């Protein structure tokens, strides 16, 4: 076969009527079909490109010490030790790197005053102190909304009540600053027990409405009460931990680190509640799975009330510290704007995660307190960020990683289905369950061969077979007939003589001993050549439809 000229091998044996060269039907080269089929049509990325973990070598038969947080069952570092299937060496990987990021972030916050520009030192130190206080509040609020699953909007009401109560006691009874957080914790306990009672009967939207009403009730009461400074816009003059004889920088620096300590206490409380028994119980009873948790003996209602009360104590403690930090409190802490800003901090960072509460607070405080020169535009920007997070992110900023991995896995499966289409080749799900892996390569080769044979089918080739079903054929037709002859016996076409030398019919073999073939069609053929051509046409039709 050279180009489109077929050289007859019978010519050199002197067969009568055999021509030396015959023009062949144009067809596509099998090598071109092979190259097109074996070349992947989807981009193949290196394995591990998007999820790369550094792997340390093993240390004999010992694993690294697994330190745990005090009072919890959580390990400081989640280290996985596995054997490399290629090198058969023990390797260790840090799977969860969040503790490392926490340490680096808190260390950077501690050292930030050393690198702050002198012109913005006072502004940044004040914003940092405000951020720490609001981060501590949001951590306690995250325990209520995220861990306990109670949609309470009264967190700032508890903080404000503790701040007003301790400020009044400090101004009128001379309560020292170090006692204000402790007394505030007691006020938070009382308020928490009162607010927790409706949580037993109400849930979801109705409880949120109740807590909003409670927050507004506190605002209206203090706004109209002479004892709580209705004429001065708040209650001021409480004792403070900041020495008044220090200069402004030293006062701001002390306030910065004192508020940072309160935020660390809030993180410790979050870890103590969420990582221990109460947190594990409530993770068994998320929304829409409460009946299952109750059926297994989990008293999730009592656990929710305990988390709510403990968080209220923490909020009251922060309220007492708030009064000692600002030497009083204003009515704005009860305002609906404050509640919305706090809710924006939680939504932007991601509800249910401590890092979401802290980072969301940092973003909102940066826009609200540092960029004061932008005016009302900063509030519009906060609203746009919150709207974008709600519309496009499922779990806030810290849910981007999981959301991206889900999207990437979906695209990978789509590309995989494009590569392994069902046209005779196995899908990945079938390939993993097939024990004989030679079958995979045979199915792939058979698919490529069928794709090539479809290109050689033409009216000229069919006409050639009609004129001469048996005997010497051109190279494309001979290749096609050889493929048909190698087909398995199951459902293979054959001809049966209805009346010898006069009538023939097409049947399909069963492929099983003792099972008669089935009749394919009722058409009767008058000669064997006509019947052979009928079988050929059915095989060609099946090939084109495969």
TrEMBL record:
Its source organism is Methylopila capsulata
**CDD domains given in the database record:** TM_PBP1_LivM_like
Keywords, comma-separated and alphabetical: Cell membrane, Membrane, Transmembrane, Transmembrane helix
What are the TM regions of this chain, as residue ranges?
A: 99-118, 124-146, 153-171, 177-197, 254-273, 305-323, 329-349, 356-373, 379-400
Q: What is the recorded name of this protein?
A: Branched-chain amino acid transport system permease protein
How this chain sits in the membrane, per its record, is: Multi-pass membrane protein
Which residues belong to the signal peptide in this entry? none
Write down the superkingdom of origin.
Bacteria
* Phylogenetic placement of the source organism: Bacteria, Pseudomonadati, Pseudomonadota, Alphaproteobacteria, Hyphomicrobiales
Q: Where is the N,N-dimethylformamidase alpha subunit domain?
A: 441-544
Localization terms from the record = Cell membrane
Q: Which GO terms describe its cellular component?
A: plasma membrane
Primary location recorded for the protein, binned into one broad class? membrane
The terms under GO molecular function for this entry are: branched-chain amino acid transmembrane transporter activity
């Amino acid at each position: 076969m050279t180009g489109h000229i077929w050289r007859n091998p019978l010519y050199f044996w002197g067969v009568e009527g055999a021509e030396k060269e015959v023009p062949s039907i144009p067809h596509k080269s099998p090598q071109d079909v092979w190259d097109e089929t074996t070349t992947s049509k989807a981009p193949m990325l290196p394995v591990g490109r998007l999820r790369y973990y550094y792997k340390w070598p093993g240390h004999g038969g010992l694993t690294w010490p697994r330190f745990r947080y005090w009072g919890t069952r959580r390990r400081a570092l989640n280290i996985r030790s596995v054997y490399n299937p290629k090198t058969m060496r023990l390797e260790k990987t840090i799977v969860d790197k969040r503790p490392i990021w926490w340490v680096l972030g808190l260390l950077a916050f501690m050292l930030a005053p050393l690198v702050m520009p002198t012109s913005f030192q006072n502004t940044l130190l004040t914003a940092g102190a405000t951020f720490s206080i609001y981060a501590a509040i949001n951590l306690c609020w995250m325990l209520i909304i995220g861990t306990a699953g109670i949609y309470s909007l009264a967190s700032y009401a508890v903080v404000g009540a503790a701040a007003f109560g301790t400020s009044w006691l400090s101004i009128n009874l001379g309560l020292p600053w170090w006692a204000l957080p402790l007394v505030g914790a007691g006020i938070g306990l009382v308020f928490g027990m009162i607010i927790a009672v409706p949580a037993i009967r109400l849930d979801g939207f109705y409880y949120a409405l109740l807590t909003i009403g409670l927050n507004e009730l506190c605002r209206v009461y203090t706004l109209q009460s002479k004892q709580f400074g209705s004429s001065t816009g708040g209650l001021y003059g409480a004792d403070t931990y900041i020495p008044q004889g220090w200069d402004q920088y030293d006062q701001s620096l002390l306030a910065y680190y004192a508020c940072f300590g309160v935020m660390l206490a809030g993180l410790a409380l979050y870890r103590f509640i969420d990582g221990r028994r109460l947190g594990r119980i409530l993770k068994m009873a998320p929304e829409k799975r409460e009946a299952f948790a109750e059926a297994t003996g989990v008293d999730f209602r009592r656990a929710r009330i305990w988390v709510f009360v403990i968080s209220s104590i923490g909020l009251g403690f922060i309220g007492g510290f708030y009064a000692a930090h600002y030497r009083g409190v204003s009515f704005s802490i009860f305002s609906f704007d404050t509640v919305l800003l706090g809710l924006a901090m939680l939504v932007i960072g991601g509800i249910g995660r401590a890092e979401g509460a802290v980072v969301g607070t940092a973003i909102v405080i940066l826009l609200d307190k540092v960029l004061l020169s932008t005016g009302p535009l900063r509030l519009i920007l906060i609203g746009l960020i919150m709207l974008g997070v709600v519309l496009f992110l499922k779990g806030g900023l810290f849910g981007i990683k999981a959301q991206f991995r889900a999207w990437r896995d979906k695209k990978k499966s789509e590309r995989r289905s494009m590569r392994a289409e069902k046209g005779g080749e196995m899908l990945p799900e079938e390939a993993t369950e097939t024990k004989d892996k030679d079958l995979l390569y045979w199915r792939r080769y058979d698919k490529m061969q069928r794709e090539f044979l479809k290109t050689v089918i033409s009216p000229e080739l069919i006409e050639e077979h009609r004129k001469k079903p048996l005997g010497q054929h051109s190279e494309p037709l001979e290749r096609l007939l050889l493929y048909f002859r190698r087909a398995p016996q199951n459902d293979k076409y054959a001809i049966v003589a209805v009346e010898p030398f006069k009538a023939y019919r097409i049947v399909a073999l069963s492929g099983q001993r003792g099972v008669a073939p089935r009749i394919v069609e009722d058409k009767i053929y008058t000669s064997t050549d006509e019947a052979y051509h009928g079988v050929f046409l059915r095989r060609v039709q099946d090939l084109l439809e495969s």
